[in-house]
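Hi Y.,

Following your request, here is the sequence exactly as I used it, all 86 residues.
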Amino acid sequence: MGAEAEGNPPPLLAAGEPATAARAQAAQPITAEQFLSWKQRKDAEEAARKAEAAQKRAADIASGAVQMNGRELFQHEPWVFDNNIY
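Below is the corresponding structure, written out as tokens. Let me know if you'd prefer a different format.
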């Protein structure tokens, strides 16, 4: 369909290597240490993102910009769910 189907060689990269060589190099296996380093970095970024979102949500609730959902209401004002008064 593309340039390869017409018999033209694949496009060259800046280093003069075919694109297939670059893909083969990118597909090399990683070591366990590299994976664990990446995983720790990814988990730290995710935890920071979740903490920031929770902090913003708490600030929005305190300012009255958004309403609490059921779980938040139960955690902060459990007396609302007390059915002993009926």
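The two ends are 74 Å apart (CA to CA).

Thanks again,
Q.
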